[in-house]
Amino acid sequence: MTKAKRPKNQKSLQGQMRVIEAVMASLIVVSAVAFLYLFAATPSSQPQETSELEKIGHNVLHDIDEQRLLARFVYRSEWANLTSALVVSLPTNVYFNLAIYDVNGNPINHPLMQYGNQQVFDSSKAVASVSYIVPGYQTNYSPRILVLKLVRG
Amino acid sequence: MRAARGKKGQFIVIAALLLSIMIIAVSTVIYGTVTYYRQERWEEYVTVVDSIKTASCNLLQVGLANYTQTQTLNQSVLRDYFNQWMRDVRKAYPGFGVDLSYSLASGIRSAYGVNLNYSMGLARTWNQQVSFSAADATVNIDVASLGLKGYNFSSHAFLKMNIRDAVWYSKEGKRYVLIYISVDKEGPEAVVNLQKSNFGVKLSGAPASSFSLKRYYSSAYSCFIYEIQVSSIDLKPSSVEVTLQDTRGIKTVSYTTNIGQNSA
Questions:
Q1: Predicted confidence band at B1 (pLDDT cuts at 50, 70, 90)?
Q2: Measured between CA atoms, how close is B261 to chain A, in angstroms?
Q3: Comparing A8-12, A91-95, A132-136, B95-99, which segment has the lowest mean pLDDT?
Q4: Given a cut of 50, is residue A104 above it in pLDDT?
Q5: Does A2 reside within a domain?
Q6: Is B6 helix (H, G, I), strand (E, B) or coil?
Q7: Which residues in chain A touch residue B17, judged by CB atoms under 8 angstroms apart?
Q8: Does residue A145 share a domain with residue A90?
Q9: How many domains does chain A have?
Q10: Which CATH architecture has domain B161-263?
Q11: Which tens digit of pLDDT belongs to each residue from B9-31?
Q12: A21·B12 Cβ contact <8 A
């Protein structure tokens, strides 16, 4: 059997149709992807920043505690040493404010332990807060809760 | 023939439509999953659990320090501390639904090369050449807000002192006692940061008013050694007693009557 010859103009018409179909298919796929982008929520940097600061804050307090210095600083009221330890341990562009409470949430009297201006804390949108509990020191059980607030300068 | 060709051409469009539906469906599922886990406060949960875990380990050391330092040897101190700790942790993390439970070790256990006879989580053997103080507890943490249940860990506190040798020297008119001590803690790990103020020495039952302390690694003993020298001891002592209180406040007392003599 020999293949019937098609007229030249019919062939080119079919070729054009293929191109149109391909363009339509591409448009459908592109429009589907575009449709998805309408609903995609790009992650805002603020929660990530806070999460990162929380991690840093917790690690620093944990490290000082591991060296058996945290309880000593807190229970022997070595506030200057505690502030210095935090300044040295935290990255240079991270500012902090530390407050100490008893287990009922009553603040413990201590001088201001802060690195960085208050304005930085007031103006920053991403303030991370880390709570760290210290149960006691030497033979005495008397829990203290350290609340460390961190911002990036 | 023409209709058949037309149908073949439409297949690309139909395939593209199906592909689009698939992309949208898969993306919807991925998007839902990602946004759900992004909203969870994982970092906060991890820090809370880690903070409670570290504090519980510290509490064990505080309990052991209290047990070893008080004259009356309050055997229930660890239980009392943990009971209070359970209540205080709930107060400290009110929004998390933290529930803590514990069990204290009891009975004889072998660890760190010694037999530990635990009662209410505490054990000690003092006034021996090898003396130790130990505490052991298993803590269970549930965090309701996280759906975390049954996270448990064992915590140990341990301090061991070994009088390796005690020798009375009488050489060239100088008479003194040298005491060689090794100190280990849980791990086991050699304790290398002790100062003179951490030790107390008694010779023949009488406190040594002054002594010197050296620290070094001894190849003879194959461990880190504290060398205590008590000078001006005219007679060979009948006994040597060394009291140690480490930086955590945990105490132990070693005692020996096995004293060597080295005379020129």
A1: very low
A2: 39
A3: A8-12
A4: yes
A5: no
A6: helix
A7: 28
A8: yes
A9: 2
A10: Sandwich (2.60)
A11: 577 778 888 888 888 888 877 87
A12: yes
- Report the amino acid identity of residue B209: S
A14 touches chain B (CB under 8 A): yes
User: Same domain for A82 and A135?
Assistant: yes
Whether A101 and A129 map to the same domain: the answer is yes
Among the partner-chain residues B24, B38, B43, the one whose CB lies closest to the CB of A54 is: B43
Q: What range does the domain containing A16 cover?
A: 9-40
B25 burial via Cβ count (<10 Å: 0-12, 13-18, 19+): exposed
CA B97 to chain CA mean position, Å:
26
Cα separation, A70 vs B63, whole angstroms: 18
pLDDT digits (tens, 9 = 90+) for A32-63: 888 777 766 555 556 667 888 888 999 999 99
Residue A122 within any structural domain of the chain: yes
Q: Is B239 exposed, middle or buried (0-12, 13-18, 19+ CB in 10 A)?
A: middle
Q: Is B4 helix (H, G, I), strand (E, B) or coil?
A: helix
- Nearest-Cα residue of chain B relative to residue A24: B13
Residues within 8 A of B (CB atoms), A 46-65 only: 47, 51, 54-55, 58, 62, 65
List, as one string, the DSSP characters of B13-30. Answer: HHHHHHHHHHHHHHHHHH
Q: 10 Å Cβ neighbour count for B246?
A: 20
The answer to the question of residue A4 being in a domain is no
Tell me which amino acid residue B192 is: V
Please tell me whether residues A52 and A123 are part of one structural domain: yes
Q: How many Cβ contacts (< 8 angstroms) between chains A and B?
A: 117
Report how far apart, in Å, the C-alpha atoms of B117 and of each of A124, B79, B111, B161 are: 56, 17, 11, 17
**Same domain for A57 and A30?**
no
Closest-CA residue of B relative to A52 is: B43
As a dihedral over the C-alpha atoms of residue B167, residue B114, residue B195, residue B136, rounded to 10 degrees, the angle is -160
A26 inside domain: yes
Does B188 sit behind a cis peptide bond, omega within 30 degrees of 0 on the bond before it?
Answer: yes
Other CB atoms within a 10 A radius of the CB of residue B231 amount to 13
Same domain flag for A126 and A145: yes
- Residue in chain B nearest A137 by alpha carbon: B62
Q: What ipTM describes this predicted complex?
A: 0.75
Closest CA to B230 of B240, B220, B243: B240
A145 and A77 belong to one structural domain: yes
Task: Give me the residue label for tokens 């096995």.
Answer: B258
